[in-house]
Structure formats: C-alpha cells, structure tokens
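Why show two proteins at once? Because comparison is the fastest way to build intuition. When a single record is shown, students tend to memorize it. When two are placed side by side, the eye starts asking what differs. So, the first record is below.
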Amino acid sequence: MKNSRIANVGSPIRRGIGRRDFIRVAAGAAATIGMLDGVTSSAQAPSSQGIPWWAARPSKGGVGKPEAIDMHSHWSPEPYDKALADLGQPLANPYPLDYDLDKRRQWMDDHGDLMHCLTLSGAMPWQRTSAQQGAHLAQVINDTGIQVHQKYPDRFVIGVELSIRDPELALKELNRVAGQPGVRAVHLPDSIERRDYIFDPHFAPVLARIEELGLPIIFHQMDGVANSYGAERTAGPPPLAAGIDAPIEHTFLATKFIYTGTLDKYPNLQIVLPHAGGAFPYLAGREEHFLFHMTDHSTSVQHPFRDYLRRFHYDYLIYWPEAFRFLMTMVGSDRIVVGTDNFAAKDIEYPSAVLDQFKLPAADRERILKGNATRLLHL
C-alpha cells in the first residue's frame, strides 16, 4: 500500500492541524450525519421479526463478495490452549471457530468477511501468570499467528501479544516478531489489576518502539474482578462487567492518553478503541470541562481537547443506530473500523449488512468496511 507509514496517512496533530482545518473536518462530519438520516426505520428499533440493528441480515441479494476487514476479532489457537492447560489453566468453554481456522474461513466467506486481525479476547492471561509465563505464552501465540498468516496471507493478520508485567520482556518480544509476516498490530489490555501500566515510565520504550514500527495498538479490556473498575459491584448476578466496566475502561484510557501528554509525546502512535470507544465520545465534552475549565491543566497538552478525538480510531461495535450516528458526527468515517467481537461474544455476524442500513455514500462505506483498516494495517 502506498504511504504505509502512519506519519504519511494519519495524525492531524503531526501535520499541525489548525483551527480552520478542524472546522473543515467538523463540517465534513456534519455532512456525513445528514447522510445518516436515511437509515431505515428497521434500524431505529428492533424489526417486527425481533431483529435489532446490530443483528441485521443480508438482503435477498445475499452476502456477496467478502469485503469487511475485522479489527476486533478474537481467537485462541490450539498451541496456546495447550500451553495454558500445561499451566493448569485450561479453557472452560472453547469455541470451535476460535481455533479451527478452516471452519472459520468458511464462516468468513458465508458472512462477508475478507480478513480478520486476530487477537486474544478479554480472557487474556496476563493477570493470572507470572511475567516469564506470560512471555512464553506470548511467544507461542505470536509464532502460531505468523504461521497462520503464511498459510492464509489474504485472510489473517495478527495483533501480537506481549507480556505486560515486565516491560523489558514485552520489548524483547516486540523486537523478536517485528517485521515478521502477518505482524500488523499490537494487542494490549486497557489496564491490569486496575493499574495503568501503559503510562508507567518503564513502559515508555515499548510505546516508542511501537510507534517506530508503525503498528497500531488495538486495545481491549481484560476480564476478571481484579481488573474491573466495578469489581464485585459488576461481577453479578447479573454480570455487568462487559456492559459497564469495559466502556468505562476505554473511556479512562483514552482520556488519560490525552491529559498525560502521551499523544503529544508519540504523535504517530495509532490507537484503536474497541466497543466504539466506550463512553469516551459521549463524555468527552464533560471531561474537557472538568479538566480544563474547572481546573488548570491547560499546559499539559499542545492542542484543544476536542482535536484529540480524531487521534483515535473506533470500531463500530455499538448497539443502537443513534449511537453510531453520534460517533460518525464526532469523528468522521475515516476514523471508524469494523469490529465484531467474534468469536468471544459473536455480536455482529454480517458486518456489511449492519452498515448498509445507513445507506452511506460509497466512499464512507468503503472506508469503514476496509479502507481504514487497510491503511492502519499496512495492507
């Protein structure tokens, strides 16, 4: 792909975006939202058949040619599962499409998926293992992912896993796999044991190396009460961690990337937030108010708070069409990618059908389904 380095394609802040440019971007987003008004009534509420917006099925014309590139797609390959079992941590409920990639490719063909960027689910093991054990597990899954890409180069790439308990081991693994076939992203948890490891000064060399390599970071919350903001309050019953804690994790992560100056320190770092950024796009105005109008943090960042919303990419895994419209208004179609949560939650089965309800302009549709992912993953 031309201009694959992130510096050439991405950050408006690196290019020195000015107020006039920002107004132009906002105007473009406003135009986009006008297009979204054409969404069908069946997308505004569950249909008479009881199918909600996110569960849309193809029209009578069928699925058509696979075209969606999924940047929020989980797996759990057999060598990794075996390594976990050897540590006394066998999977409780393995799902066949998590590890049987022949069946998975057929599923992708049947559902319009061109490519999956494979990452672990929220059940990633870093909180349950030592740093050394984590380093071994990361190597097992990364090596398996490289082999999978070599076998199916047009269908799978990987977000490499790192042992986050030890930044030196994380950096060592990152350097080991850098440049290997299929390595197109880095997959990291939002936090561990409610600790913001990502902003620890000892982790800075890892962030710097990720930026240097031009790899996007795909974030995801890590499961378990120890990692949950709500702890026992959201553990259930009923379990509310995925519905409440996950979006709060993403919100705090994105906000702290801004007010710590981390985005300014790494102007070419590309970040993909799952679950449509959680509550971050919705709460950004309130965050700005209390960070910069009620207190004095104005010297902490180099740009207006709102400009930073477009420093992130967001998957479209949001469940009401009104929320998707809002996300489009705030960040524009060039910052949204497909994310399905398959096969952990199996949320969205037909990525194109979900999007086509909005009758977007062809260019916006193409960006969201595969154009933005192609740019981020250097395909």
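Second record. Ask yourself what differs from the first in the token line.
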Amino acid sequence: MRTLSVCVGSSCHLVGAYDVINEFKRLIVEHGLDDQIELKACFCLGECQSGVTIALDHKIYTSLTKEKVEDFFIKYILN
C-alpha cells in the first residue's frame, strides 16, 4: 500500500491543505484506488514556507494547491 500524507499544520492549513486532501480523496475514489493508497493528514513536514506539503511514500513534495493535485496524481500515482 502506498502512503500519501498531507500536512495540515498551521502554515499548510492556511493555504488550503484540506482542499488538497479533499481533491486527493475524490481522485482516489474515482480511480478505485481506495485499497491501494492510504491518505492521511499529518503535522509539519518541515517545509512551512513552501505552501501545502505532502509526502508520497516518504518523498516530500511542496507547493501543492487544489488545482495542481490532479496533475500530480496523474504523474506520480497513476504512472
């Protein structure tokens, strides 16, 4: 199972972390990957200055927005 963690600490929360989570949830369900991806909220991935930060299988990605989630999902999860 792959792990997708989205930071919901103060900085990320203020710039849309929950919108990012909801978009990932939508795409995971839409693509039938509920049993293959564990989506979870976490606190502080150490990139507070870089917008919403996520970790996919322990690799850090920064500056995510709701609008960027689908492209990220296609590039890093579906491919």
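One difference worth noting in the second protein: The first strand starts at residue 2 and ends at 7.
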